[in-house]
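Give me the fold.
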Amino acid sequence: MVKNAGGGDPRCRLSGRARHLPAGTLLRPVLCQVQEPEWYSWAERVPDGPTVRLMCDVAREHQMVLIVPVYEEEQEGVYYNTAAVIDADGTFLGKHRKNHIPQVKGFWEK
């Protein structure tokens, strides 16, 4: 995605909900339709988790600012739907923890 976008000379890329997988698989979707303990293992630390580390390298390689969604675990039992912001030189700039007020059928996010 980023490599193809880089051909058009963009300065910033906002990714859809995605997540790094172990063993070299790059991305898979993360959906916030239920809150179940089975999904907690998908969460990772920000900025020290594998997704942000990988995307820092990608940003540096393509000289592109990236905004990367991550299922964050701040501490055991505390999870956030987070967007990591990475500068074009690969520097982690910060994160935004998204807030969702409505809790409706089919979409429940803490």
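Strands lie at 12-14, 19-20, 27-28, 65-75, 78-86, 92-97.
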